[in-house]
Amino acid sequence: MFYREAGDFKTSYRDDSQTFPIRFDRLRYYAVLVVAFGIIPFVINDYWANAVFVPFLIYAIAAIGLNILTGYCGQVSLGTGGFMAVGAYAVYKLMTAFPEVSILIHVLLAGGVTAGVGVLFGLPSLRIKGFYLAVATLAAQFFLVWLFNKVPWFYNYSASGQITAPERTILGVAVTGANTPAWAKYLFCAVILFALAWLARNLTRGTVGRKWMAIRDMDIAAEIIGVNPLTTKLSAFAVSSFFIGVAGALFFAVYLGAAEVGEAFGINKSFLVLFMIIIGGLGSIFGSFAGAAFLVLLPVFLKNVLVGVLGWPTDLAAHIELMIVGGLIITFLIAEPHGLNQLWRVAKEKLRLWPFPH
Amino acid sequence: MPDTFFYALEVSLNGLMAGVMYSLVALGFVLIFKASGIFNYAQGVLALFAALTLVGLQNGQVPFAHLINAVFGTSIHGFGWQLPGIIAILLTALVMVGLAILIERYILKHLVNQEPIILFMATIGLAYFLEGLGDVMWGADIKKLDVGLPQGISDAIESTTYEWFGYGFFIDRLDMVAAVVAALLVASLTLFSQYTKYGRALRAVADDHQAALSVGISLRFIWVLVWSIAGFVALVAGIMWGSKSGVQFSLSLIALKALPVLMLGGFTSIPGAIVGGLIIGMGEKLFEFFIGPLVGGATENWFAYVLALLFLVFRPQGLFGEKIIERV
After folding, report:
1. Does residue A56 lie within any of the structural domains?
2. A39-77 burial string, b = 16+ CB within 10 Å, else e?
3. For a 10 Å CB count at each end of chain B, is N or C smaller?
4. pLDDT (0 to 100) of residue A62
5. Which residues in A lie closer than 8 A to residue B126 (C-beta atoms)?
6. Range of the domain at A113
7. What total of structural domains would you count in chain B?
8. Is position A205 within any domain?
């Protein structure tokens, strides 16, 4: 009825190759943008910003980053936490060293620094493949966390070993520090997420993305048809690490405010982001959003039900939560190994034929 | 100078002993990887779960006591008996076999023919689940595990070496027991896989799934078998680590330490797991001893991974792994 190509005539190549060729999809996209930028910032409060929206936006950036590397280019990485730490410490050093420069530039530069580190740790991927590579990226995870713990220069010789974000403003409104209004936090992350998701979407459907996918599907065959594995793999590591670095910078500066590296960027963070893209769907931008939303909302929901409604002790609830998360992941993998994105795709297919499926 | 030499020797001996402990965990990984191509992240949590169950059975704790108390408002804690160590170990081994059957029935059966990454993720999910289950069943506090293994520094070795070299070596008695147990375990696993019917079936499956199916070997039975054996190896690892440092959550993290061991030795080789463990154990202790003080210590956190990473760049299949052949 409403989800149809029919009647939506394209009169130029430009129209024909747009991201959302179906009119309903385009309208939905604009509607999401209106809600995200026109409504939520005006009604958001501190609880919703801190518990749901800001972590969702930041994890979505990280998930898109990891999805570029793992979903599109096929290189499994367990070093996400370490790369997020690089972003966080880079932005901290930049913020304290150049206080007069805009925080936005610092966040992007932190992404750039992480991209450099990512390329460095991506070099072995030319020799090592599959699980061996996944374990090799653990080296990045543990080494980086150790480095930020042990070298005092990174945390400006502070006595506690923590890093604390100073207050920085954009157009006179604080976006980091203790006095940040909830809507500013939300809007700052949302704008960056929107820009990066747009970038990722267009990268992955262009030449670069096709090269990544060729390497993922079979690297030897890709090499034979003229895809250079060196530049392709390293570009995937660079772009992915850029995204993850930006996510790490925002996670520290906007969300946490103060961070201790082992706690905030440990191995669990790597697994969390990996879960997000598996549950959301490998090789899809929508899947990154869906996975991030699912894994941010689930613990909030479970905590509210188990502690709030049933009144169980918090430690017991935490253990049950672990069991439920583990069980859900297994159930998901059995029921739909291609993730939430696949459910979405099937729903769209059904909608296209509705109400006459034959 | 001789003192530094002897000290370094002692450090490397202790490193070798620690390496044996890593090897124990790595063994379980290799067994499952060979038989089913599954990279079993849950191996460390299996060890934790086994150790928790062992302590719980030994002390006569009521399973799920915390949960029952929370739901029904009761206050029960234990049956009030103490089981002898050997019976508790046998019962725990039974529990691990039961667990293997459940894992096969509810997880693996449904994931046949999925990509390796999906199976790997499923075992991470399993790890979370078991971690939660262990805590809910037996409580999350740190427990002391004592099944009568010798503890402390061996006086005999210290005095003997002092007579010989003028320098007494400190060797933990538990570490020596672990080394002996690991040797026995490897020997019995080798005997089992070479000289029994099921061992041959196991090797056939490891070699080629489809060929094994076509000559009438039941894959499902083999999977249950191999997960039971891995559970048993996890139990042994759990007993050793639990006696050494108490049964607590960090026990499951040793699984991560077993990964570089595997990479170094090759995912598919049992001797590789042992040799890799020894190299990693000795390497990280020596590195910490010589280089650690220069860079601020705690290098044990990452040394193993970086060593494995550098090693793999030159030999991607590990020391004893099968050569990776790629075809288009």
Report:
1. yes
2. ebbeebeeeebebebbbbbbbbbbbbbbbbbbbbbbbbb
3. N
4. 95
5. 326, 330
6. 23-264
7. 1
8. yes
DSSP 3-state of B77: coil
- Cα–Cα distance between B314 and B321 in angstroms, integer? 13
Tokens of residue B184, six digits: 């026995």
| Residue A347 domain-assigned (yes or no) | no
Interface contact A143, partner B, CB < 8 A: yes
Render the burial of B222-241: b for 16+ CB within 10 Å, e for the rest.
bbbbbbbbbbbbbbbbbbbb
Kindly report the backbone phi and psi dihedral angles of residue B187, in degrees, each rounded to the nearest multiple of 5, phi listed first: -60, -45
The two most distant CA atoms of chain A are separated, in Å, by 70
Cα B85 to Cα B54: distance, rounded to the nearest angstrom: 8
The CA-based angle B43-B226-B175, given to 5 degrees, is 50
Cα distance between the two ends of chain B: 58
Please give the average per-residue pLDDT across B225-235, as a whole number. 89
ipTM score of the complex? Answer: 0.80
Chain A interface test: which of B32, B130, B136, B263 (most A C-beta within 10 Å):
B263
Sign of CA dihedral A254, A169, A53, A198: negative
Expressed as residue numbers, the domain containing B197 is: 2-257
Nearest CA in chain A to B73: A312
Residue B67 with chain A: CB contacts under 8 Å: 316, 320
On whether residue B291 sits in a domain, the answer given is no
Spatial contact of A212 and A68, defined as CB atoms under 8 Å apart: yes
pTM: 0.87
pLDDT band at B328 (very low <50, low <70, confident <90, very high): low
* Residue A295, in any domain of the structure: no
Dihedral (CA of B104, B109, B111, B116) sign = positive
Cα dihedral: B74, B77, B79, B81 (round 10): -160
- Of A254, A243, A247, A328, nearest to A72 by C-alpha is A243
- Which letter, b or e, does each residue of A225-248 get, where b requires 16 or more Cβ atoms within 10 Å of its Cβ? eebebeebbbbbbbbbbbbbbbbb
- Tell me the C-alpha distance between B262 and B274, whole Å: 9
> Does a structural domain hold residue B168?
yes
Residues of chain A falling short of pLDDT 70: 1
* CA distance, residue B173 to nearest chain A CA (Å): 31
Evaluate whether residue B302 is within a structural domain: no
Query: How many domains in chain A?
Result: 1
CB contact under 8 A, A329 and B39: no
Residue B122 maps to a domain: yes
